[in-house]
Amino acid sequence: MSFLFNDFSSWKKYCEEKQLNLHEVVLEYEVKQKGKSPQEIWDGLAAAYQVMKEAIHTGLNDDMTSRSGMVNNGAKKVYQNKLTVLSPEFQQLIARALAAKEVNSCMGRIVAAPTAGASGILPGTLYTLQEIHQLDDKKISEGLLVGAGIALVIEEKASLAGAVGGCQAETGSAAAMASGAIVYCLGGNVDQVFNAVAITIQCMLGLVCDPVAGLVEVPCIVRNASAAAIANSSAQIALSNVSAVIPVDECVEAMGEIGQSMEDKYKETALGGLATTATGQQIAKKVLIQDIEILPDQPDESS
Amino acid sequence: MVTKSSVFEMIGPVMIGPSSSHTAGVVRIARAAIRVLGKKPEKAVITFYNSFARTYEGHGSDKAVIGGLLDFKTDDNRIKNSFEHAKKEKLKYAFKSVGNASTLHPNTLKINLTAGKDKVEILGESLGGGIVNIAEINGFTANFSVSLHTLIITADDVRGSIAFIANVLAQDDCNIATMSVSRKGRNDLACQVIEMDSGLKPLTLKYLESLKWVDEIIYIPDIDL
């Protein structure tokens, strides 16, 4: 019987009992649950990472304008800006996360990780991590496996869907996956990896999903950039052995609880928040199809 | 019981953006529609309902559905330019929007296809994460996911037909995952939708087609193959 991803503490216990690394448990799970060979899984991860890198490249080089007009080559502007706020690496991280996500908004090919709305976070963080630390592709694939394990637990205990748990469930989960993967790839131990996940979730808790005109553009794209930044700040904190205090499993439970009590208007319905601001409504009016046939309400049985 | 997700649902699927329900799901419904038609469509009318009715253009579901009708897969970069490809393939198309269809799922689309004298009508629901349900085919209740291998048999409503077909499938070593039967009326045409874990041999399909009480056989292998 392979390990089932119910919570982080049992994942850790399984690692200790079987003397396995975090990523090996995820690999074993996929082999046993889904009947795949390890080679198929490694190939699949390498292919996914390749698509992520291509998305960054496309976003930084091709024209990225969306039909709504809200996306207009933002990643390129950040990448080429001569004014650097922190460091060139930070500027590149932000530009890459934006780039991959803009590709998603502009009907390009991406990896939903864990969802399409959060598809810029793992590409931005992992590509930048690999470049700075000269990691090989195998290590990045291991990081992706750890990220997948993190997402499996969050899916089990909370949710990965904006329509169920708000934006924290999408970009929050992706940031947690990225942060855990960063710490793992830099040689962090199990506690440090899970601590990074806990800190990241604490930073992302409560984010609502309030997309303007219902499109996966504003604020989704800039939130991919901020989530990539938070993944890195949490990794830096966790690798320095600063405790999240609240254990990771309890952080995920809090995320689930907040998601449950969030009003529906903040869950991808475009009925609240940024979507219903004056400008948001104006954009929606322009973008949404107005020429629609409205069926009469169903006749009431009692009348 | 909910099936445990795969690593490749967490790191994946690889797809064309922006949204799994508006692009990937719509592509898969369209690919199912051309398999039901069984040939290249010449004309397509696509009706977007409810939530889809207002949002389909902003999310590119119109390009996604045309891409699917051209048999592009969910990760095919040509989807973005599917209208130009449709022109080359001489596929004519039109879109309609209908709101307030309260009996239908929020993200529903209807695809009407014509090729010569052949016509089909498919009602598909995009459930999120690229998962879909084909709710109706030509007015018959269908309800299948296209992620398994699907056999759709339209046949006379004769006694023992279900047992007979199940037996034939068992001979081909096929395990039935789901099955539904609907009919227009007693002793009228009945529609059986059978989802199987593995594919069928061409010979088995030919045999089923040759039965005199069978009107039509439609076979849809796993839609992402």
TrEMBL record, chain A:
Pathway: Carbohydrate biosynthesis; gluconeogenesis. It is an enzyme of class 4 (lyase). Keywords: 4Fe-4S, Gluconeogenesis, Iron, Iron-sulfur, Lyase, Metal-binding. Signal peptide: none annotated. InterPro entries: Fe-S_L-Ser, Ser_deHydtase-like_asu, Ser_deHydtase_asu. The keyword Transport does not apply. It catalyses: L-serine = pyruvate + NH4(+). Its EC number is 4.3.1.17. The keyword NADP does not apply. Residues 17-275 form the Serine dehydratase-like alpha subunit domain. Its cofactor is [4Fe-4S] cluster. GO terms for molecular function: L-serine ammonia-lyase activity. Belongs to the iron-sulfur dependent L-serine dehydratase family. PANTHER family: L-SERINE DEHYDRATASE, L-SERINE DEHYDRATASE 1. This is L-serine dehydratase. It comes from Agaribacillus aureus.
TrEMBL record, chain B:
Its cofactor is [4Fe-4S] cluster. It comes from the Bacteria. InterPro entries: ACT-like_dom_sf, ACT_dom, ASB_dom_sf, Fe-S_L-Ser, Fe-S_L-Ser_bsu, Ser_deHydtase_bsu. Belongs to the iron-sulfur dependent L-serine dehydratase family. It holds the Pfam family SDH_beta. Gene3D superfamilies: 3.30.70.260, D-3-phosphoglycerate dehydrogenase, domain 3. It is an enzyme of class 4 (lyase). Its EC number is 4.3.1.17. PANTHER family: L-SERINE DEHYDRATASE, L-SERINE DEHYDRATASE, BETA CHAIN-RELATED. Residues 150-225 form the ACT domain. GO terms for molecular function: L-serine ammonia-lyase activity. SUPFAM superfamilies: ACT-like, Serine metabolism enzymes domain. It catalyses: L-serine = pyruvate + NH4(+). This is L-serine dehydratase. It comes from Agaribacillus aureus. Keywords: 4Fe-4S, Gluconeogenesis, Iron, Iron-sulfur, Lyase, Metal-binding.
